[in-house]
């Protein structure tokens, strides 16, 4: 049976949700999917990017403490901490970029 006919949409296959290291939107997911690393990273990046923009600081997300540490919200049950940091930083950069360039408004 072809995957399009399997009844599962992209990211809805139960095997996706059960694999914490799945980069297709599993447990950590992309920031749009709302995994914990991505949620914290995107929100922190958005907040820091907005602050830097309003304070007329240069675009330098890597210099913010949240980006450097990249472990806010981490719990041992989430698995590998380095993987969590990678997901956090990717979402942080997107949140920062959107806010700094004015693409994200509250």
List the helices and strands and how they pair.
Blueprint: H1 14-17, H2 36-54, H3 65-69, H4 81-100
Helix pairs in contact: 2-4
Descriptive report:
With 106 residues, the chain is mainly α. It has one domain (26-100). 45% of the residues lie in helices and 0% in strands. It contains four helices and no strands. It has helices at 14-17, 36-54, 65-69, 81-100. Helix 2 (36-54) runs parallel beside helix 4 (81-100). Mean pLDDT is 76; it is low at 1-30.
Attribute tags:
elongated, 106 residues, disordered N terminus
Specify the number of helices. Answer: 4
Main sheet?
Answer: none
What is the SS-derived class? mainly alpha
* Low-pLDDT segments: 1-30
Short recap of the structure:
This protein is mainly alpha-helical.
